[in-house]
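[Structure tokenization] protein backbone as discrete codes

[Encoding] learned vocabulary of local backbone shapes

[Begin record] amino acids and matching fold tokens:

___
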Amino acid sequence: MLYLLVIYNCDRPEPDDPAFPDALARVNAFADECRRRGAFVSGHPLQGEHTATTVSVREGKTLVTDGPFLETHEHLGGVYVLDCRDLDEALELAALCPMAAVGTVEVRPVAAVPGLAHQA
């Protein structure tokens, strides 16, 4: 079953930061463990929320706004898509994710929607 690991509130160091190599090594070790288990589907770090553009359509009119739509104390840092045998494995892998030590990892099953294209 596919699970989405949603990473919140984890500031990652920039490539010129001395902490970057260690942080990258921890993230790569996590991805390698997911691959070793056959669970890794994809992983995507996101640029900062200041790069976001929000699109909404109301009464047939498209509104495009720079920045995140909601003011929130949490920021979305990235996602992993994992194909796990069950929720227990997804939770175990979420706990191994290095960002869980500095932020929050939300685990959510991906819904299977009949007739929806591009599902795994």
